[in-house]
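Give me the 3D structure for mRNA-capping enzyme subunit beta.
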Amino acid sequence: MSSDSDNSANDFVGKRKSPPVDSQEIQNSAKRPNDSVGKRKSPPVDSQEIQNSAKRPRVEPMDTIKMEKNMFGLDPSDEFIKEISDWIWLKTKNCKHKVEVEAKVGRFLDQSAQRAGLPVAVETILSNTDGLKFESNMTEAQHKHYNGILNKRASQLNQNLRSKIDCVHNKEIDSFHSSGRGSGKVRVTRDQGKTDIKEMIEKVRVADLAIYSPKRLFDWRLSINMEVPHNDLPKQDPYYQRKKDRMSYTQQEMQVDLTQVFARPGEPPTHELELEIRRPKFLMEEGKKRERGLPNMCKLYRTRL
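Predicted structure for mRNA-capping enzyme subunit beta (305 residues):
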């Protein structure tokens, strides 16, 4: 019994003359010189990068930068747009009849019938138009170009179910009669080929604002008129008639009219482009809210129209 156990014990002792693998590795590593002593004269890569990055200013990704307004806490102002919107409000707020606010696209011509060359570099409001004539006209090709743009835009928006653009094609005849009061005139509008009167008004001019755009092909003129309704057809014969072939595009508060105007037999038509605010009464109501310090849509109107 004891003999067997002694042999077993001796076998165990004999097998343990060399240390286990893990222990052997520890002993060997203790005998090896420290390799890192000679290789750590410069800091590790990560440490070096940290030191370098500490010297560089931090650059934020462009999509995470929050830009402050400016040191004064103000947004940049657009004097041009503000001047136009203030002018519209000033000229319309006391009008007692239906108001028309429209912009005609054209060119300011000098006395030689050429495009005016004024000493300004960018689009600007003219405070004096002496010696200049505004011509609301463009070529047939230009007219067709804008027609194509508007048709394409209408198709895109209507397919995407966004705010739709509605198109209406009208052919009308305007007859102009003296109102019997100074230079006033009554405009009677009918559909071509019909005798029924669609509209009969006296258009009273309130004010014009001239905008000269030297970097663009066209200038424009902003006009404010009152449209006074008439119930009785003037007895005098019309002193002037014109035929209109018009495409009207409407979206929300804006209307764009592309019109061929045939003024005199045998003469080529003019090609006009006009932009009109559809609901000037609503705009005036919003202006009154602003004057009373109430919530209003004037700022939105100014940036959109």
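The chain has a mean pLDDT of 83. Let me know if you want a second pass.
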